[in-house]
Amino acid sequence: NAGVTQTPKFQVLKTGQSMTLQCAQDMNHEYMSWYRQDPGMGLRLIHYSVGAGITDQGEVPNGYNVSRSTTEDFPLRLLSAAPSQTSVYFCASKGNGKNTEAFFGQGTRLTVV
Amino acid sequence: AQSVTQLGSHVSVSEGALVLLRCNYSSSVPPYLFWYVQYPNQGLQLLLKYTSAATLVKGINGFEAEFKKSETSFHLTKPSAHMSDAAEYFCAVSDWSGANNLFFGTGTRLTVIP
């Protein structure tokens, strides 16, 4: 089973460049989310979606856009990369209910120079 | 709003010694709590979760956690550490809004000394 697949695994961007981080899941989960992981700060929620066509902001949404046109895909867009966006990004999906397990991708390590 | 606090960003134990990783929660309603583990250069995977069915929860790899409402705690323990337990551990709480978001603590890095 593929689970949650993120691409790319590594990326280096120059300040001001744009890019899209891809995330796909094959578990038919309605809920998907993006987190960033920084040393000493744990995982912070960027954006999330509770179903196709529905997205909302998390704790740290500035500088990121998302869309959800299908149940399977939830891309994260950086419109104009900044050094402060250097981080490891994780996509996650989970089933309905507050006690359900979240499944994580392997992460994308992004460096903005 | 729900939140969790992990005390100790780094914990070192000797192989075979008790592992104790601390997590305290803040919630005005009974929480759903989780422990996740992250091995180097990997994503997070679920160790165990508390869903109010039992206060002592057993997870994978010999880990367990006890929910203590009076102490607002959900500490993670393992009787005997193994070298393979070296990883980063995150406590998380489920949001009580309709979105089911998870909010994570800052993590505890466990080092196991041979």
Largest sheet of chain B: 6 strands, mixed
Tally of helical segments of chain B: 0
Percent in helix of chain A: under 10%
Largest sheet of chain A: 7 strands, mixed
| Spatial shape of chain B | globular
Order of helices and strands of chain B: EEEEEEEEEEEE
Distance between the termini of chain B: 41 Å
**Chain oligomer state:** heterodimer
What overall form of chain A do the CA principal axes indicate? globular
Radius of gyration of chain B: 14 Å
Tally of strands of chain B? 12
Total helix count of chain A?
A: 0
Percent of residues of chain A in beta strands? Answer: over 45%
- Kindly report the average pLDDT value of chain B: 92
- The residue ranges of chain A in which pLDDT falls below 50 over 5 or more consecutive positions are none
Mean pLDDT of chain A: 95
Largest interface: chains, residues each: A-B, 28 and 26 residues
Residue stretches of chain B low in confidence (pLDDT < 50, at least 5 long) are none
The percentage helix of chain B is under 10%
Radius of gyration of chain A: 13 Å
Give the number of DSSP strands of chain A. Answer: 11
